[in-house]
Design goal:
heterodimer; A: 258 residues; Rossmann fold; six-stranded mixed sheet; B: 385 residues; ABC transporter involved in vitamin B12 uptake, BtuC; 71% helix; 3% strand; globular; binds adenosine-5'-diphosphate; binds magnesium ion
Amino acid sequence: MNQVLLACDGLSMRFGGLVALNALSLSVNEGEILGLIGPNGSGKTTFFNVITGIYQASAGRVDYRGQDLARLSAQEIYRAGVTRTFQRSRLCLPLSIFDNLMIGNHRRLNHGLWFNLMRRREFRRQFEQQYVQAQGLVRTFSQSLSERLFEPAASVNMIDRRRIEICRALISQPTLLLLDEPSAGMTHEETRELMDDILIVREHMPGLSIVIIEHEMNVIERITERCIVLNFGQKICEGPYAKIAADPQVQEAYLGTA
Amino acid sequence: MKRLIDPASAFPALISMAGVTLFTLLFLHAESQEAVLGLTLGAAIALLLLARFGWNARAAASFAGHSGAGNASVIIGVLVVVAVFYDQHFPLLMLASVLLYIVVCLGLNLQFGYAGVVNFAGAAFFGIGCYTAAVLTEHSALPHLLVVVAGGVMAAGIGSLLILPVLRTYGHYAALITIAFGILFRVFLEVNDALGGPQGMKLPGMEIFGWKLNDGLTFGDIEVSFYANYVLVALAMAAVAFMLVRRLERSWIGLNLDAVRLDETACAAFGIDVARWKITAFTLGNFLAGLAGAVYAMMTGFVAPNSFTFGDSLILVSIVILGGIGNPWGLTVATAIVLILPEKLQFIQEYRLLLYAGLVILILLFRPGGLMPRQVRNYFPGWKP
Ligand SMILES: Nc1ncnc2c1ncn2[C@@H]1O[C@H](COP(=O)(O)OP(=O)(O)O)[C@@H](O)[C@H]1O
Ligand SMILES: [Mg+2]
């Protein structure tokens, strides 16, 4: 359980004069759910963007299964099994829900020109197989949503869009899932439901590690095994929720202001 | 009425195609400006009325559910038009031109309808196909089918010069680069004496395995216009191109192209190679334009620089927008309207660019999906979960 999956060391990200990540060192263990918290602007989203190759780190390394993610492209990082959701929803709204899920499933689909154009029977088999999988996954989150997979993503409400985005990140069976404020804009009840659904999916994916950025402290308390608190791009505290909640430095930086 | 016709039956599609074919016959036959104008307005009103009674939606559903019968009825419609006007050059030339322009617009649709790569040099890539055919038929004995392929390859190849700048720049800048290329291309043709300068070049008629397309068939007293041959070739090309573009759209590749257009950051996060798919769409699109150009040049027997102006490129783009960005059927209908209408309504000729510009603005403002808005991807028509 305590095998390290991802370890970053001295990770820095500068935007001009602004230091969004300041020599950050932390690790994620295999199979754990890690909470990442900190005040607004403390660098949480930037951390995800650097890990997933959207931003190029200014300094430092990110060890992940023997590779340095800081040197890989976003595509290579995805293929290595790291997926994410975005703080601000990034679905392709005109496309169907199914299409959006298949975007997340890219690494498991055959993209050959010949296969797609000429081997229509085999393509159909792959398509039907993917449909069954996608429907099964979405059903864990919502039965009614799973019956609407060929409607445009634009036609469903905010909560369902969040669900689709999480499913898009889960469908390729990643090793590391990064959730950036998945419950933003939801009520307590809806958030609870969503988190329970995520836990159910995790049961079917042994070994999946999750890093979750979340403002809702009772969510963090309930589902994370360990937390890391960021402030000004630095780690100021680390440990189980009970420990960080009691930490005076954390209270000053974060909980005190809440 | 509603109960009598099963929405899932093939009849609405077939009846619609019969209506469209009949209308096309009347329209091509009409001589006086009043008759043409009357038919145009009549068709517009009829379409609005039919839409009001839900017929258009039913026909669309029927086409979707019976794509085989629907496609066949379109091909039969074209053949009926050929049969009726068998001895008249002008309508057949127009029909063949429409079919070849459909191929070009299918290519443009791949580029900016799916991948979001704007191309304001469509006419230039078509022109590359034309000039490739002119040069190869003059200086080589290459079989004409290979000349046509060479037209496509040449357009795709020269297009690849633009790939780097198009990939590196975004939005307006990529558009500007294609505009500059289109203008450069035309200037190059005008000053290049080897390519005939402003006067252009002449070409022989097409020949496929000994079949000389410029020799019209004769059955006893009946003389069939040689353009009928070109209609058949253009129809075959358009049908194949249409089928391939359709399949491409209904595949993971079509999905990749859409994703590239809609959100490059999400693409990166899920391993979709933005450059690869932009290059694929751009190259395939230009290939189709060049292919059509080569056949067009051999059909008209003549190429000159001023057939490939920026205005012509704009018309191609407006066809795709008018028809419904991303919808191959939409651009098919729009190509027919945009090409045939000004030929029949002479007073439009001079103002046609103005008219299209106005139409495109109206469409973008009030019906951004175009005349026939694209539907959500349906990987296999008729497939139900
Ligand atoms: N692309 C960018 N360009 C410039 N500054 C950025 C960029 N992305 C983030 N920042 C800055 O980095 C800091 C951390 O931002 P962020 O990681 O989004 O914080 P959090 O997610 O913890 O609220 C903020 O000050 C933010 O303004
Ligand atoms: Mg954030």
